[in-house]
Amino acid sequence: MNSDSDLQIAGDLLEVPHLLQAPRQHPVTVAEFAGLARSLAEDRSRWEHLVEYDATTRWYHRLLTGPGYEVWLLSWLPGQGTGLHDHGGSSGVLTVLDGTLTEHTDRGTRVLGAGAAGVSPLERGREWGRVFAPGYAHEVVNDTLEPAVSLHVYYPGLTDMPMHPKTCAAATAAVTA
Question: What transmembrane ranges does the database entry give (predicted)?
């Protein structure tokens, strides 16, 4: 019978701090960036007082930066949208904080909505947001009669947002989906 325990094999963990990983101060994985977006969405005190609305264009505010990433807060009045675009070499997370936005891609249309107290967007038939890789092309629009607010995390920070011409197929997919 072997009496070796994990502690006897590894030694006293307090004596080997070099084996323990320090908690990360900033996200580095897709899951961690999505977690950052969700935690900011849930903490209205971090962003709600900053929101403004502009009748001529979407309003935006850089909420947070970290090593290689940035977080943007945007507001959308009814009818405001982005046009078909991608995010260059940046990956991203988009989540709706208030209201509803519609995303059009070559694969169809998705409604992205904020959760109500105790009700997740999925339970209301809406998705909480979108995680995307570099080159992901979409158009986002507020096609409701109410304002909307969204949060966007980009890694690396957004430096390029190429616009795309709408093709017949993309326009058809957006209309028929």
Answer: none
- Tokens for 134? 């570099």
Backbone angles phi, psi at 143, to 5 degrees: -105, 25
Domains identified in the chain and CATH numbers: 20-155 (2.60.120.10)
Query: 2: left (phi > 0), else alpha (psi -120 to 50), else beta?
Result: beta
26-68 pLDDT, tens digit each = 888 888 999 899 899 999 999 999 999 999 999 999 999 999 9
- Residue labelled with tokens 């996200």: 27
The angle at the Cα of 41, spanning 62 to 161, to the nearest 5 degrees, equals: 40
Is residue 86 within 8 A of residue 164, CB to CB? The reply is: yes
Tens digit of each residue's pLDDT (9 = 90 or more) over 5-21: 555 555 555 555 555 66
- Report the SS3 class of residue 51: coil
Spell 49-86 as b/e; 16+ CB within 10 A means b: eebeeeeeebbeeebbebeebbbbbbbbbeebebebbb
The pTM of the full predicted model, rounded to 2 decimals, is: 0.77
